[in-house]
Amino acid sequence: MHTGSDFAGPFKVTLTRGRGIRSTKAYVCIFVCLTTRAVHIELVGDLSTAGFMGAFKRFISRRGPVSKLYSDNGTNYVGAKRILSELHELLTRKYYNSEFAHILAENRIEWSLNVPAASHFGRNWETNIKSLKSHLYRVIGDQILSFEELSTVLAQIECVMNSRPLCRTLSSDPSEPLALTPAHFLNLKPLKYLPAIDMDENKLSIFARHKLLDRLVQSFWKRWRMEYLHKLQSRQKWNITSEPLTVGTVVVLTKENTPPLHWPLGFVKEVFPGSDG
């Protein structure tokens, strides 16, 4: 398995919930499979070799062995703002690089500090990482969550991203289109999502914290889903010929207020060509 990795953060967290508890920093370690485009997210307490290796061990324990690991130790962080300076310092630290490389070598894992040569590999990795990080910063921002709460939010966001349709696959019912998702490669079946508490309620209750977490996940879902659907629409140059829609083509339907993990699909039943073909 060829995998890309990156960091995001810092985010403010507390070890437990309660008044007067001081917050600390936590970081998000992101892994992306360069073949299936599946995303795996781990929360780490600090930017250290031990912190990253703990996240990496949890990753391969649940997802399987890695043959090659890609990480960008400079180009994404050169000229970064102050909030990313610690990430840049970690990834360019000689001690971090030498110790990490030694551990990977013992496990026969090849480590590369450059973006994969194949353009589609590098593009998929960078697109997923960039999208996840940008929406995380927008949705969570300066919100202070407990370490457990942020872990829960990240697990649900991981589930959301791995539910996205990649292409059509065979279905037992020809009238019901089925899309292949990263989750199929991880679990051999689509992912499930616990229904959220109604977010239209304005009054807080004993479920206030659960509502807050659901609101964060739903906000991420709405933002990220619209961005993903927008990217699915081909934007070819006028001098490039693209394949026209044909009867039987599976399409993703855009509907408002679609719940997380739900990607309504449909078939093209009839085509009405325009004057330009």
What's the quick description here?
This protein has 277 residues and is α/β, with parallel strands linked by helices.
Distance between the termini: 42 Å
**Residues in helix, %:** 25-40%
Average pLDDT across residues? 76
Order of helices and strands: EEEHEHHEHEHEEHHEE
Work out the number of β strands: 10
| Poorly predicted regions | 74-84, 236-240
What characteristic shape results from the CA principal axes?
Answer: globular
Rg over CA atoms, rounded to whole Å, is 21 Å
CATH overall fold name of the domain at 2-164 = Nucleotidyltransferase, domain 5
The biggest beta sheet reads: 6 strands, mixed
Could you name the CATH class of the domain at 2-164? Answer: Alpha Beta
- State the CATH superfamily name of the domain at 2-164: Ribonuclease H-like superfamily/Ribonuclease H
Structural class: alpha/beta
CATH architect. name of the domain at 2-164: 2-Layer Sandwich
> Total number of helical segments?
7
Give the percentage of residues in beta strands: 15-25%
Description:
The chain has 277 residues and is of the alpha/beta class. The chain has a domain at 2-164: Ribonuclease H-like superfamily/Ribonuclease H (Nucleotidyltransferase, domain 5, 2-Layer Sandwich), CATH 3.30.420. The protein has 7 helices and 10 strands. Helix 4 (119-140) packs antiparallel against helix 7 (208-232) and helix 5 (147-161) runs parallel beside helix 7. The chain starts with a strand and ends in a 10-residue tail after the last strand. Residues 1-182 form the Integrase catalytic domain. This is (apollo) hypothetical protein. InterPro entries: DUF5641 (IPR040676), Integrase_cat-core (IPR001584).
